[in-house]
Structure formats: structure tokens, C-alpha cells
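Structure first, sequence second, as always.
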């Protein structure tokens, strides 16, 4: 098989969409399933998801959140209890109508989201103030019909995600929970995936259907499109009333509860691919990389082989004891050059090359994936590799911040806005707060309000569209 068959054959800059698909498939993160709109997660892709899940679970647990499990089928009669909420999902719902050849009666929806099912149960589980707060997270799949414009990790008909649902006795406590979760999301994405995000609120038009308001974190991708990375919703009592999620207080007076819901999906993996990958393939941040270090032994004869393999295994053992995820590429049938290209395609953060001359000189060659830098290190300095991995993680976030800043501009002139939006980017532009202007901008440019950053209130500027007094400076962008 030639290099052209296994490597990335298009430039990220020239054909971003095709480049992205090739990286997903050729780096063996995922593959297409036999059913249109579905993908299969391969071990490396699933390992990244497991890493994120582990981090989130630890942080959720510190916040008093426990994991549960919900079934995938939801009766239509339950979905109808919150008509406004369900109407937002109805066009995307898959329905089960038969069991074998028999009709099931009440149609069953394949879960697009779990509010209605969870809150039906919460109304049974919550009786008094002693049962609150109730904080449960569910790791599951959701199904939404995405048949036309599918893209692995970003837009598929079934996706892995977590959805949390909390219940509180007061509005204040629920609203604090919304922000706590958003902060957990932001810190995890920036610290683990090395992707900078902007947090704030969605506009009234773009908020989660059924929520009082939606907080969000958004990122700008290298192609100039925005990607929603996660959301945390203040549901107020919009669900507790129709689902009768009530509690008796200390005086035995009954009240409707206050609720939140929040989630992230494997879309985070898609963002990581786009943010860091290059023309050679995937570039993985060390914290989530399935393999953090790969060692490639180099030798020409059996005498050299024995010495090199002995030293390689010695180094691998030291790194394993330091809890570094290490792999020794001992494939005999492949040349070192082929192996280098293969591991670069798969995005392993650090490659170590060791041959007879290196052992003679008591050194080894290190190759950093994210910037292609090569350096020599003494064989007795192997423990410094922990520091190098930490530095790579830090530098990747720093580089991503710079690229995001370069893709963000302040614009107050609408003609300039329309012209520059063709190339994409985050546009900080004043807005009057009116739905009509928001809709006209989207209709004329394809850009929508992605996020109204916290503390972006502004009444000193004029709305970019109607020139009336602004209320805030949101970020406008075209999105995935």
C-alpha cells in the first residue's frame, strides 16, 4: 500500500471538509456504519471519549452529582406533556411503531433528549425538602434524524453524550448550578482538549426549547465556523409544573421545584480534530491521547536489534511506572520512515527514536507531533518526558488561543460585516436585542448569534443592523 493510500491527500487549508473526513477515517477514530447518518466509534476514538468521561465524572462527583441510567424509549404521551419543548424536537424524532408485526399502541420515541422521561420519574422520587437537591447525570446516546448533512462527530443521527438533570428547592440554588456546570465544561475543554471557549448566554431565539435561558460555550474552528461545545440550561419551573415535580418544605407547604439540565457530546472530539490537526493528520493533546508516547526502535541487524530492544524496553518500563501511556512499535515488516508517518497520522504527541548510535552516545531523539520539533535527550533524562508532555499540552492551548484571537474581529459596519462574513470568523458586533434584527442578519448573511458573552452588556454603541441603541455585543458567526 502506497503512502498516498494511507496518508492525508488534501490540504486542511484548501479543502477543510474533505481533510476532516480523511483524518477521522484514516487516523482510525471512527468509521461509517451501514445505516446512513450513523458512525462506528473505533478504539482510539472511544478511548478519547472515555478519558473525557473520567474527568467529567470526577468533577461531577465533587459537585454531588451521581450517575444513573435511562432507557432509550419514551412514550409519546409523556413527550406531549411539555408541548413547546417537544415541538422543537418533533421533526428529528425516530419512532417505534411496531413490535414484530404488532402495533405498539402509544408510539415510542427513540430518545432525542431525556427531560420528559427523567422528570416523570423525578415527580415520583421527590416528596419533601429532604430529597433535594437531586443531581443525576446520565451517560447515554441520543437519536435525532440527521440524514442530509452528516459529518462524523459533528452531526450524526445517533451520538454519545452526557445529560445532567438537577432539581432544587430555590431559584438561586438552581441558577448557581447552571454556572457551576458551565465552568466545569469550560475548564475541562480548555485543560484537557486545549481548545479555548467563550461562555455566555444564548439569545431568546437560540435558547433550548423549554428553558428560561440557556448558557453556552462556543469555539471558533480554523475554517471560520462556530461550534457549540456544550450547554447548561436554567429550566426554572417550566418542567416541574407540567410534570408535577413538587416538594413539601419544612412547614409542610408544597412548592414546585426549580430545575436545570446540561450536556456535552462527542462533538468535543470533532472540535479537537479540527482545532489541532494538520496536513499530516491528527494532533492529539497529551491528556486525552490514547497513547502519549510511541517508541520506534531502529536497527539493521540482529546484534543491533538485541541491544536496541533491551534499551527500549528499559525506557518503556520507566515511563509506564510514571503512568505515561506508552507503546513500543516492534512491527518488523515496516521501515522506520513508514512508522513515523503512521504515528504522525494518528497524532501521538511524542515519538522517541532509538538506534545503535543513540545508545552509543547515551541519547535518544524526541519528535513532538504538534510542532514537528526534534530534540535530543540523554537516556538518563527519561523522567523529563513528563515535563515535556505537560509543556506540549500548555503550548497547544496557547497556539489555539492565538488562532482563535486571529479569527475574531470587532465590526460595527453592516456592509463590512456582510463582506467579511463570507470568510467566516467570530464577529463581535453590537445588537439592539430585538428578534427582528437577529432574524434579518441571519437571513441576509447566514450568521447567527452564537453567544452573548457574560458582561458584554453595552448601551453606548448602535445596533449593527438597525442603528438603534444596543443592549449587548454578542458574537455572530456561521456555525456547524
Amino acid at each position: 500500500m502506497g503512502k498516498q493510500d494511507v496518508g492525508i491527500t488534501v490540504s486542511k487549508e484548501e479543502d477543510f471538509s474533505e481533510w476532516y473526513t480523511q483524518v477521522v477515517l484514516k487516523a482510525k477514530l471512527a468509521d461509517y456504519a451501514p445505516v446512513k447518518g450513523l458512525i462506528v466509534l473505533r478504539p482510539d476514538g472511544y478511548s478519547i471519549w472515555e478519558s473525557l468521561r473520567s474527568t467529567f465524572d470526577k468533577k461531577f462527583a465533587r459537585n454531588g452529582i451521581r450517575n444513573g441510567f435511562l432507557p432509550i424509549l419514551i412514550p409519546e404521551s409523556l413527550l406531549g406533556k411539555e408541548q413547546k419543548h417537544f415541538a422543537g424536537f418533533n421533526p428529528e424524532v425516530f419512532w417505534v411503531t411496531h413490535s414484530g408485526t404488532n402495533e405498539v399502541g402509544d408510539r415510542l420515541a427513540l430518545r432525542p433528549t431525556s427531560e420528559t422521561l427523567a422528570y416523570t420519574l423525578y415527580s415520583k422520587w421527590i416528596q419533601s425538602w429532604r430529597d433535594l437537591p437531586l443531581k443525576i447525570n446520565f451517560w447515554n446516546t441520543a437519536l435525532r434524524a440527521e440524514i442530509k448533512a452528516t459529518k462524523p462527530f459533528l452531526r450524526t443521527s445517533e451520538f454519545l453524550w452526557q445529560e445532567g438533570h438537577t432539581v432544587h428547592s430555590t431559584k438561586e440554588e438552581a441558577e448557581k448550578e447552571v454556572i457551576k456546570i458551565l465552568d466545569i465544561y469550560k475548564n475541562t475543554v480548555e485543560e484537557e482538549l486545549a481548545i479555548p471557549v467563550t461562555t455566555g448566554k444564548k439569545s431568546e431565539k437560540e435558547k433550548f426549547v423549554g428553558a428560561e435561558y440557556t448558557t453556552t460555550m462556543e469555539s471558533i474552528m480554523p475554517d471560520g465556523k462556530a461550534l457549540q461545545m456544550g450547554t447548561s440550561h436554567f429550566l426554572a419551573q417550566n418542567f416541574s409544573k407540567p410534570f408535577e415535580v413538587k416538594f413539601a418544605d419544612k412547614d409542610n407547604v408544597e412548592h414546585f421545584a426549580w430545575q436545570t439540565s446540561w450536556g456535552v457530546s462527542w462533538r468535543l472530539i470533532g472540535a479537537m480534530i479540527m482545532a489541532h490537526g494538520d496536513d499530516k493528520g491528527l494532533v492529539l493533546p497529551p491528556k486525552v491521547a490514547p497513547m502519549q508516547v510511541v517508541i520506534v526502535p531502529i536497527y539493521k541487524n540482529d546484534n543491533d536489534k538485541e541491544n536496541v530492544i533491551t534499551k527500549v524496553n528499559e525506557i518503556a518500563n520507566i515511563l509506564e511506572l510514571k503512568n505515561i501511556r506508552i507503546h513500543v512499535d516492534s512491527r518488523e515488516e515496516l521501515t522506520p520512515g513508514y512508522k513515523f508517518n503512521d504515528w504522525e497520522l494518528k497524532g501521538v504527541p511524542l515519538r522517541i527514536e532509538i538506534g545503535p548510535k543513540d545508545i552509543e552516545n547515551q541519547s535518544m531523539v524526541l519528535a513532538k507531533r504538534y510542532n514537528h520539533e526534534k530534540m535530543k535527550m540523554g537516556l538518563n533524562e527519561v523522567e523529563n518526558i513528563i515535563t515535556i508532555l505537560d509543556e506540549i499540552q500548555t503550548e497547544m492551548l496557547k497556539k489555539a488561543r492565538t488562532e482563535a484571537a486571529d479569527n475574531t474581529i470587532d465590526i460595527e459596519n453592516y456592509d463590512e460585516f456582510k463582506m467579511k462574513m463570507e470568510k467566516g470568523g467570530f464577529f463581535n458586533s453590537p445588537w439592539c436585542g430585538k428578534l427582528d434584527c437577529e432574524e434579518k442578519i441571519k437571513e441576509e448573511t447566514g450568521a447567527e448569534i452564537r453567544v452573548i458573552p457574560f458582561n458584554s452588556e453595552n448601551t453606548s454603541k448602535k445596533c449593527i443592523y438597525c442603528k438603534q441603541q444596543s443592549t449587548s455585543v454578542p458574537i455572530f458567526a456561521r456555525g456547524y
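Margin note: The chain has 15 helices and 23 strands.
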